[in-house]
Write a structure and sequence with these properties.
With about 190 residues, the protein is α/β, with parallel strands linked by helices. Helices cover about 35% and strands about 20% of the residues. The protein has one domain: 3-Layer(aba) Sandwich (Rossmann fold). It is built from 5 helices and 7 strands; from the N terminus they run E-E-H-E-E-H-E-H-E-H-E-H. The chain binds guanosine-5'-triphosphate and magnesium ion.
Amino acid sequence: MKNNPKALFKLSAFALSQVPRDRKPQVAFGGRSNVGKSSLINKILGQKRLAKTSSTPGRTQALNFFEIDGRYYFVDLPGYGYAKAPKSVREQWGKLTDEYLSESGALSGMVCLIDSRRDLTDYDRHMFEWLDDNEVRYAIVLTKCDKLSGNKLTQAVRRINSVVGNDVIPFSAQTGKGVQELWKWIRDTVQSAK
Ligand code: GTP
Ligand code: MG
């Protein structure tokens, strides 16, 4: 692999007004709480702790922006479906993410993370529908696939492909599986952004 891109933590946005508006493309990473968003971002950037990971679900509470090679952003979105958070906090996360996705106008693509061992939730399906309706380019990444046998993984990919026709990329932050394929998708997405 070529050298890791230069990645800098830019800011945490707790309100839509704090989202960067410098016209650099933004690629968001979304999925349910604890699915492995922050671990994936660290892995593909070759960093250990740039994005904060935690075994406690619901850790990422803001929209965290990382500037990549000074040219575009990664956005680590708060995880959805973390039932244990207080209702007011849950609503706030959902509201900010919804506002960002629908109103910021800066989103160039989305990496949707699904735990390879789990079924799609209604929220996942709803997200795909929304992305389709809004013509946002997206890839589906199956996380933690080091925990599945090859056979089970093939079944998981088929299961998703029976619902959505998008690229499905098996990924593991532990073994590095899928890193190259995901980068290819990200580079294509950033290049095709206006
Ligand atoms: P929130 O920010 O809370 O929504 O979570 P997140 O989606 O950012 O998940 P995070 O990256 O913090 O990972 C959650 C847990 O899953 C941590 O304990 C990670 O070590 C573990 N994990 C993440 N990716 C992998 C993987 O590829 N393989 C395995 N085995 N564990 C993983
Ligand atoms: Mg996180």
